[in-house]
Amino acid sequence: MIRSLSIFVILVLTSGVVSRSFAQSGSKAETALNQLMEGNARLAKSTADEAIASDRNNSLAYAVRGNSLTMISGWKSGLPDLEKATKLSPDNGLYLSMLADVYNGLGQEANAKKAAEKAFVALRSPKTAFDYFARGTVNSRLNRSDEAIADYTAAIQMKPNFVRAYGKRAGIYYDNKKATEAIFDYTMCTNLSPDYTAGFYYRGLIYMDQGRYKNAIEDFSSVIKVDASYTDAYLNRGISSANLRNFNDALYDYEKVEKLEPDYWQIYNRKGHIYYQQEYWQSAVQEYTTAIQKKPKEAISYVYRANTYSRMGDAEKCLMDFLMAQNLDPKLSDVYLNRGNVFYNAEMYEDALKDYKKVIELSPKWSGAYFNAALALQGDQKFSEAISYFQKAIDIDPKNLDAYLNKAYAFDALGNKKAADAERKKYVEMGGEQQAVGKNVYRNMYPEMEFDANLAKSKLERGNCTIRGRACTKVDGGIYYAKGVKVVLYPVTPYLEAWYELREKKEGKRTGVFMSKEASRYKMEVTTDYEGNFQFQGLKPGKYFIQVMHEFNQAKTARIYTGSDVSQNGPVRTTTNYYYDQDYTVARSKRLEKFVDIKDAGDSKRVTLANGVIKSCTL
């Protein structure tokens, strides 16, 4: 059975000493109690059955059997026996503490509190190891962690082999973020009782949280060796293997879970994740679909399948699944986060931003929500706004290193070198990799002006004007025609003028000035012929900017020295040097561009794109 227990899993046990907490006991019941203490719940249940068969009013036997059933089959299964035990002995602190645990596990908080408070009164003056243990259980349920630890410690001091006292104390340590102490106590459990599965299991969970997956796998394997039907052990061993990218091992364990708990719908999502990581998209879809069939109203399975459809390039099914998930659970932030990621990867930044802002609304204290929104704004070249969101991400989580670094990039884009370098220094101070600053940084800059897409689109509407031209480059006296090269025409807008002005002022060896991705999409393109000729037709009157990136190889020849020969003729000594000519090429790249203004409808313009005056390049 898949357990939904906290790390305080029922660990009720006693020493061999019988305290005054028992209303009555017999040898079978005491034996059952000791078996339970040693971690053998199934044997304890069997022995308790025998005790109850001999005495239908043996409250200890009912308490032990109820607690054993709880450990074997879950909270609900042990409730009738524990209620029977407390009915037979209504003031017994042991039984009341057990009952409080079960009520708490069932979510019956009022009943749990009432039973715990009554048990606390009965255990006011503990005398034995068991009394301290029972009171520790009550204190833990009343959120008195320090008092509970003190009671469990007292129980251990009185009986050093008190396995479950170690287990209970370990649970409190771990909930209070004292993992080292918790591991020590769980290790004591496993040393004292090698068949005590809870010790291995919960220590394995701690190792998982610490990223020590190999250690976790060893512990879960120890659990399975004792109890081959322990579903949670297979599940968490599979998760640990998946984190180590041992996918075959993970699938083996997930399939064991599937056989043991075929209605456990999350296991199909787990299997889907394994196939997803290996890019077996169709298999992943199949597993996510099975999860949906098992639990059709669980939104998260649709999210997983939507992500897979996105990777398969099926946009329609992807968006349909996200919409279904949103309808099923409008407050599930995973829907908006994952859909936002899909939009972001498709460079649909406005749509991504809408979803990321919804994540912020649902999870306002999560630094990552603001960080993602900042990335979407940065992708849309809205750098000033992006900076404010990066700062919000840092305010929530000062250790969000990526926020510092991306904030630096945003400042670079705005030309604020001082602020950008300050963010890089913070990034390094917080533990990030060393970053170049000052003159050593290559910076990308963009115009601060917002691009008007509608204006650019209108300027590219169909007209009856033409621009004809030729592009060529002159290097070392040689003329190179830009043959088979792409020529780009942009409509001149205030944004383009701002970009050009910024480029003229700021571009250098360590600084690049770029248009936004959106602005760069509004253009016309043609390819030159063998002599560098090109033509744009169907233009409206207006101003245009034409650009060619001319890349070519320049043929050159070098004289290579191979050696010399010396001859002597009387007093005259002659040296002869030998050479040969070697051809080689030099890669060249020239940016050729020009503004062209068309005044009237029907006009035809001729232009030359060249790095200087080249008569043979003129049309």
What does this structure look like?
It comes from Pseudobacter ginsenosidimutans. This is Tfp pilus assembly protein PilF. TPR repeats lie at residues 129-162, 197-230, 231-264, 265-298, 333-366, 367-400. The protein has 619 residues and is of the alpha+beta class. Among the domains are: 26-123, Serine Threonine Protein Phosphatase 5, Tetratricopeptide repeat (Alpha Horseshoe), CATH 1.25.40.10; 337-430, Serine Threonine Protein Phosphatase 5, Tetratricopeptide repeat, CATH 1.25.40.10; 452-493 and 519-552 and 585-610, Immunoglobulin-like, CATH 2.60.40.10. The protein is built from 27 helices and 10 strands. Strands 2, 3, 7 and 10 form a 4-stranded mixed β-sheet that branches. A 4-stranded antiparallel β-sheet has the order 6-4-8-9, with no helix packed on it. Helix 1 (27-37) packs antiparallel against helix 2 and helix 5 (93-105) runs parallel beside helix 7. It is elongated and about 120 Å long.
The CATH superfamily of the domain at 452-493 and 519-552 and 585-610 is identified as Immunoglobulins
Structural class: alpha+beta
Global mean pLDDT: 91
Instruction: Estimate the helix proportion, in percent.
Output: 55-70%
Work out the strand percent: 15-25%
Tell me what the CATH architecture of the domain at 452-493 and 519-552 and 585-610 is: Sandwich
- Please write the CATH class name of the domain at 452-493 and 519-552 and 585-610: Mainly Beta
By oligomeric state, this entry counts as single chain
As a whole number of angstroms, the C-alpha radius of gyration is: 38 Å
**Distance between the amino and carboxyl termini:** 83 Å
> Total number of β-strand segments?
10
Under CATH, the topology of the domain at 452-493 and 519-552 and 585-610 can be stated as Immunoglobulin-like
- Total helices: the number is 27
The major pleated sheet works out as: 4 strands, mixed
Low-confidence stretches: 3-26
Estimate the global geometry from the Cα principal axes.
elongated
Pfam families: TPR_1, TPR_11, TPR_16, TPR_19
Keywords: Repeat, TPR repeat
TPR repeats: 129-162, 197-230, 231-264, 265-298, 333-366, 367-400
InterPro entries: TPR-like_helical_dom_sf, TPR_rpt, Ycf3
